[in-house]
Amino acid sequence: MTANKHALSVTRTEDFAAWYQAVIAEADMAEESGVRGCMVIRPWGYGIWERMQRLLDDAIKATGHENCYFPLFIPLSYFEKEAEHVEGFAKEMAVVTHHRLKSEGGKLVVDPEAKLEEPLVVRPTSETVIGAAFSRWVQSWRDLPVLINQWANVVRWEMRTRMFLRTAEFLWQEGHTAHASEAEAREHTLRMLEVYRRFAEDCVAMPVIAGEKPENERFPGAVATYSIEAMMQDGKALQAGTSHFLGTTFAEAQNIRFQNKEGELELAQTTSWGVSTRMIGGLIMTHGDDDGLRVPPRVAPWQVVIVPMLRDTDEDAAVLDYCRALAAELQGQSALGEPVRALLDARPAKAANKRWAWVKKGAPIIVEVGPRDMAGGNVSVIRRDRLYQDNGKLASTIQPRAEFVAAVGTLLAEIQSGLFTEAKARLDANIRRGVTEFAELERFFETGGQFPGWVEVEWSRPTGAELEAVDQRLKALKLTLRNVPQDAAPATGTCVFIGRPAVERVLVGRSY
Amino acid sequence: MTANKHALSVTRTEDFAAWYQAVIAEADMAEESGVRGCMVIRPWGYGIWERMQRLLDDAIKATGHENCYFPLFIPLSYFEKEAEHVEGFAKEMAVVTHHRLKSEGGKLVVDPEAKLEEPLVVRPTSETVIGAAFSRWVQSWRDLPVLINQWANVVRWEMRTRMFLRTAEFLWQEGHTAHASEAEAREHTLRMLEVYRRFAEDCVAMPVIAGEKPENERFPGAVATYSIEAMMQDGKALQAGTSHFLGTTFAEAQNIRFQNKEGELELAQTTSWGVSTRMIGGLIMTHGDDDGLRVPPRVAPWQVVIVPMLRDTDEDAAVLDYCRALAAELQGQSALGEPVRALLDARPAKAANKRWAWVKKGAPIIVEVGPRDMAGGNVSVIRRDRLYQDNGKLASTIQPRAEFVAAVGTLLAEIQSGLFTEAKARLDANIRRGVTEFAELERFFETGGQFPGWVEVEWSRPTGAELEAVDQRLKALKLTLRNVPQDAAPATGTCVFIGRPAVERVLVGRSY
């Protein structure tokens, strides 16, 4: 297999959407379940999620949060308390109306006699039910802050679904906090945004732009919504995590009040923030190539996969022993602060098939061991991030086993940082700055090639109807406002949308 | 506080059910959510679940399983395929019938136009939807065995609920496997039963009896169901985990067929097995005492809690520094194969209140540090498993800090094994053997005191209507058949229920 003939049947430039589906299928990450809008997450996809969970959970706990679990079902009436919130979600919720089935003429039907008095909504997010708990838990300033998180499934009835990016049911963590002061709650909102930025960049090797969403893109009921936005290889933006300052919106709706130090009753200030299995979609579209997925070592279920080259001869047992010893040696090493995750793939299949299966899955390092490697005390090493030589041939290097084992931690760290550097260079190269006219922005997306990237423009931060008009103009071009980057240069010119002095910079792009 | 005045408002002997609820409330483990049958699991309860998950997940992975995730919703028609299975669950399932709400006269209502074509059942268990996936994954003998597991929430519409023991929604793991031969599947069913037995005994310090459930207690659709049964302090049995050999029941219903080595199409043999948050209920009723919970160190979120005795003086800062250093030293130690989990509780509350809060939560070791301890380079150590001296006073021992730190691993291991030994002695003492007449069995439960325990009797393993009759006789006494212990002595006498030669022994008791 050479560089112009890749492991996937479709390349990114041929059809990015089809390529995305091909990666998921060929890497055995997930599949359609037969249940509308719901996917089955297979072991390799779920293994990546488990790694993400472990690393993000550690970071969430390190910032003082504890995990809890709240009910899947939320009574309809809870949503009525917060009008703006329900408006944002009301159109797409799964509703449980009955609690029993019965047999009728040999068929199963819903038992009409088992109708619930109050319908239950399958949680689309848990602000309402967690707010109700907070109102029980918070009495005094001494009870604040409340810092909690839950890992859960949520359901939003989506009409058009795409695996990992938009599914009816998805997995996520949702953090919820209550604070005594607005300043503290706002600071916490930004602290969690920073936790997400670091997680995305340091663990998923996915560079992001952290910033505030414009008013029209706020979470229903939020006073301010922040996001991390990642650029996919097709130039589109993926909102990969959000952090919301909710002010007293939910505290009022759910009656979260505390006695302050002066003995007065005050409303708590709340925040919420979430990251979901969507992050796996981001990983695929950040690191995948035409041979499949490339998983950054920190989130790879297996970092090193050993493929024995068996020939149905007497030597096989010795090769397997050699591989087992190698796996144990690797597991004794550490990389990126954790023990190396090494797997011996001893399944009954051809070595070449196994190699390509792991290439498509994106294991960071594949080690092949045949009788000749064994005899020389060597291993043949394939780096997934540098799969081909300049001549288009597969790059496999023979190394002394001890040398490979001793350096594996360094190599994995190098692969991790190399994937980030590559993605960061692409992000930086594909944000166009200095666009001062709307026509120029329009032209950029018309003539910017197959994958045009984003434009950062100066704007006057319009609100209400003015913002709505901007949004409509952009929507006509299939564009959206992404966020106002935290670390953008100050505005010095004129708003690109409205001829007023600009106050800040905002990113514009196509998005998922 | 002395031995006859305990931290809870109700003792086990006064009212065991009220005591159970009091432990959960006073230890901040969980609370009613306001959503019918669903609880909120609070940080201390969820932290114990996270520890259980981590340990059991490791054991499940060590036996070759990988984690996946399957849809929450199961189309109604999936249940029709397996008649016996649906019969067992049909009466108690949450059904999603609509996918949208709408506003009507200022109120939220279910939008009648958004009715689903096919109702979706919220999974009560996932055999049907996982079986459908297996039928896609399994083509050849080379694809077998399939060994997977998922951690998920499930819903069974229970009329009478009790926190952790029986809730409408609960959390669990469900393992599902497919095998090429019946022998292999049966062996795997027992392997997972053994994983559960070890988990319960080694991690939760909860002794159990592993054995086969009688036919009438089988999982719907199973060929054989095995359980681990634990004895609660009120003598009742808690089924704490089950493992099912499903034969070809689900393979037939879901069409899981493979080409065997001879090229013939064969049905796969499947198994399933689960452990749930019910295990937390078991932990409470195994180890709790009249001062609250006692958590075995292996599943304790915090194993050592440090409570500084602050007096609002200049010395406070030094005491806190001393405590911080102590926490770091403890975290550097290892206990039961893991780093020690030590917490410094520096919240603004009275030291005595914090002490009793941790006593009620059941942290294995509470260390108090006041100025005098600090001056002497000491710590004051309270063991939750030996809270009182013989004279009824609280047992707190002053120890040199370095000595305590060096021995903390040993101490935690001793507490872990001590809790198991105590519970095992109670289990052994409360299984009555040698009962040969039904009247004697009846008398045992009538006169066996407040918490009578179980009876192990010889029986003839009746089936069908005969078994039904036995079951009815027992139910009249509020008794059930628990299981046929794997390691019971062989039967030598006559069936206690039916005057036939006995073939094995079975446990009888009250149960949760």
Automatic annotation (TrEMBL), chains A, B:
Domain Aminoacyl-transfer RNA synthetases class-II family profile: 31-296
Subcellular location: Cytoplasm
Keywords: Aminoacyl-tRNA synthetase, ATP-binding, Cytoplasm, Ligase, Nucleotide-binding, Protein biosynthesis
GO molecular function annotations of the record: ATP binding; proline-tRNA ligase activity
Coiled coil: none
A GO cellular component entry from the record: cytoplasm
Pfam family, one: HGTP_anticodon
Biological role: Catalyzes the attachment of proline to tRNA(Pro) in a two-step reaction: proline is first activated by ATP to form Pro-AMP and then transferred to the acceptor end of tRNA(Pro).
Family membership noted in the UniProt record: Belongs to the class-II aminoacyl-tRNA synthetase family. ProS type 3 subfamily.
Entry text on domains: Consists of three domains: the N-terminal catalytic domain, the anticodon-binding domain and the C-terminal extension.
Assembly information from the UniProt record: Homodimer.
Protein name: Proline--tRNA ligase
Source organism of this protein record: Sphingomonas horti
Gene name tied to this protein: proS
